[in-house]
UniProtKB/TrEMBL annotation, chain A:
GO biological process annotation, one example: aerobic electron transport chain
Compartments reported by the entry: Cell inner membrane; Cell membrane
Class in the EC hierarchy, top level: oxidoreductase
The protein's name in its UniProt record: Cytochrome d ubiquinol oxidase subunit I
Organism: Novosphingobium hassiacum
Stretches for region Disordered: 445-474
GO molecular function, one term: heme binding
Keyword Hydrolase among UniProt keywords: no
Family membership noted in the UniProt record: Belongs to the cytochrome ubiquinol oxidase subunit 1 family.
Top-rank taxon: Bacteria
Keywords: Cell membrane, Electron transport, Heme, Iron, Membrane, Metal-binding, Oxidoreductase, Transmembrane, Transmembrane helix, Transport
Record flagged with keyword Cell cycle: no
CC terms in the record's Gene Ontology section: cytochrome complex; plasma membrane
Coarse class of the protein's main subcellular location: membrane
From TrEMBL, chain B:
InterPro entries in the cross-refs: DUF2474 (IPR018895)
Domain of life: Bacteria
Record keyword Transmembrane helix present: yes
Pfam name, any one: DUF2474
Stretches that traverse the bilayer: 23-44
Source organism per UniProt: Novosphingobium hassiacum
Protein name (record): DUF2474 domain-containing protein
Keywords assigned: Membrane, Transmembrane, Transmembrane helix
Amino acid sequence: MFAGLDPQATALVLARMQFAFTVSFHFIFPAFSIGLASYLAVLEGLWLKTGKPLYLDLFRYWLKIFSVAFAMGVVSGLVMSYQFGTNWSVFSDKVGGVIGPLMAYEVLTAFFLEAGFLGVMLFGMKRVGRGLHFAATLMVALGTFVSAFWIISVNSWMQTPTGFEMGPGGQFLPGPSWAAIIFNPSFPYRLVHTVIAAYLTTALVVGAVGAWHLLRDRTNAHSRKMFSMAMWMAALVAPVQIVAGDMHGLNTLEHQPAKVMAMEGHYQSHPDGAPLYLFGIPDDKAQRLDYAVGIPKASSLILKHDPNAPLAGLDTIAPENRPPVWIVFWSFRIMVGIGFAMLGLGLWSVLARTRRRLYEWPMLHRAAVVMGPSGFVAVIAGWVTTEVGRQPFTVYGLLRTADSVSPIAAPAVAASLLAFVVIYFAVFGVGTWYILRLMSAAPEPHEDGPEEDEQAPIRTAGITPAHQPQGGVQ
Amino acid sequence: MAIIDPRLDGADQAEARPLWQRLGWMVAIWLGSVLTLGAVAWVIRSWLNSPQN
């Protein structure tokens, strides 16, 4: 695949592959932990409000999974900063003055809100009491959100850079207002779309675990409760996500039109209304979409709210500034397809509820199990759409990717990429296997928490706590 | 009707302690967690800054 490329171009491709691989791996864990932290806060809040031990059992069940996912997110995230120094030192030198402080805020948040209060969540219940423990859970949930705030602000600034001044050495320097940098034009849309995606991802995992255990025992009150909560999320939040995604798309059309052209597969301009292509094989060399299947004028209707509105194509963009269409076109369709599948699952669950078959419909439960990992696929597909769609720039329109890379040798990048692939699959494979193992056990009454796992056995001197009937606590 | 979980004793006992004591525990655990992560970060940073890297 590197035939015909000079060594520096090969190093650039390898550096991009390395970042894409590590960030895709990393993104899985925060996407899960952002949603799971809020779910834990809801569960503990419901326990405190109702006094029902079922919520505490579910809290403890998911807390163990959260702590493993959180740890893997921290470890995989460390590699990101490592690469900024090794492979992307020119980028770091040029934009460090702007994005450095924002990333530092993210690290401070991770340290002092997420990691600090996670310790209280794991080991503090018997020492600080319920109220303070709940406060710690809320701090962790807030921390995951604030972390996302800063990271998405950084990424959004790379997509729609504002509020900076150019230094004498070509560096991007902060202008008079940090607010203009942080709240850049695409930031609010991107933040809302990403955080909702994280909530949906978590809801589908929780729903899949609940459904998995319902297929084995329909009477398990814990499985019923988490399946029901997850399906409410899918039914209520998936439509909101589709609206948020549409608004994000309109914002992208305004600020990054070439990305939308690639997403839509519009190589040519359409002066009398553009079709919405559902399928096609993009051919970047010939600048055309082969085997295209589309709905006439629907793209103009969605993007301009007028079926006859003209839409410019990639033929209006200088060839050296066009993103690669194939990847963007298909990653966008994967994301949107999964989004509508989530909506379908949510509506199915509403139908099942109205027929009082939510816990009695094995086909629905199987569908929920199949959809369990789909949120991760959707967030990575969305990430690929937005990052590859920004190409060939790292800072959109201002700093080219080819001018951001370190003067590195291709063999060195290839070796470190290989090492990352091996280590990531080994370390995170074990972590993911452990999470799946935790999920494979059904939540039970008197679920053990992390404190119990490491302390003396609960059942001592022949005294066994009486289990409550499964159906009696819902 | 709320069902009392027999293992809530620990939380109940914690509630019986004065607030300053519980807050003290919260600060101690929080500090321990931050310092633990700080130590891990320091080790990784030292490794990355070592001459062979």
